[in-house]
Amino acid sequence: MKAYTLIVCAIICLTSEKCYGKSKPKPSCQYPPSQWCKTLEIAIECKVQKQCLELNATKPDPADPKVVVGLYYESLCPGCRGFLVRQLFPTWVMLMDIMDVELVPFGNAQEQQHGGKYEFLCQHGDEECQGNMIETCIMNVTEDAAFPIIFCMESSSNVLSAAQPCLQLYAPSVKWETIMSCVKGDVGNKLMHMNALKTNALKPPHEYVPWVTINGEHTEDLQDKAMSSLFSLVCSMYKGGKPPACTGALKKLDRSYC
């Protein structure tokens, strides 16, 4: 079972219980759906070992390199948010076995060094700098859960207000204070400086955001194809055997349903 299906089922079950006033059942395991197939022990505890075995059986050969999609963006840029929410995250959910994502929140910001620290000036104001820093620290602290958290933030009406509840949803073991300690401290400052260096090192130099790279390369043709249909682009760029999602081939597997 794909991670996306597991997440959707979990959300449907939770929301339906709330809507109908039923008491919530005791969780079958302590792990979020995105982690159910991470190890055999977790799969057994969450009672999804059969689905995980099926999922692993259809995975591409790990020897074939994944397509790396880089997104250089700003947390409050409407165009960046639209691409991340409507193209990048859904494509990653369906093609995560053949695709990696690199997020670099900085974009058109500027930095200056004062007294050993860096100060940042963002295109959409101080709130955007705050959003960039929060998302950078989330990536540093939560690792595998970072992209779903950032998607949750960017798809919300208020990116900053959504940060803490999105963190609690996808990384409940991480305390909000840990993220804010990074945001306000030297670690976050240095991480944001690294984002600035990565952005300023782009060749060709970025002219706008969202700025998309495929396997480290940017051309106007790749940008246009990514913006119009990232899913098709990733499938076409993958050099290994195409997964069923790319080919439309049917797989007769014994699926369970929510």
TrEMBL record:
Annotated ranges, domain Saposin A-type: 22-62
GO cellular component terms listed in the entry, alphabetical order: extracellular region; lysosome
Enzyme Commission number, as recorded: 1.8.-.-
Highest taxon, organism lineage: Eukaryota
N-terminal signal peptide: 1-21
Top-rank EC class of the record's enzyme: oxidoreductase
Keywords: Disulfide bond, Glycoprotein, Immunity, Lysosome, Oxidoreductase, Redox-active center, Secreted, Signal
Chief localisation class: secreted
Pfam family, one: GILT
GO biological process: immune system process
PROSITE patterns per UniProt: SAP_A
Subcellular location(s) per record: Secreted; Lysosome
InterPro entries: Interferon-induced_GILT, SAP_A
Quaternary structure, from the entry: Dimer; disulfide-linked.
Function: Lysosomal thiol reductase that can reduce protein disulfide bonds. Facilitates the complete unfolding of proteins destined for lysosomal degradation. Plays an important role in antigen processing. Lysosomal thiol reductase that can reduce protein disulfide bonds. May facilitate the complete unfolding of proteins destined for lysosomal degradation. Plays an important role in antigen processing. Facilitates the generation of MHC class II-restricted epitodes from disulfide bond-containing antigen by the endocytic reduction of disulfide bonds. Also facilitates MHC class I-restricted recognition of exogenous antigens containing disulfide bonds by CD8+ T-cells or crosspresentation.
Protein name (record): Gamma-interferon-inducible lysosomal thiol reductase
The organism of origin for this protein: Megalops atlanticus (Tarpon)
Phylogenetic lineage: Eukaryota, Metazoa, Chordata, Craniata, Vertebrata
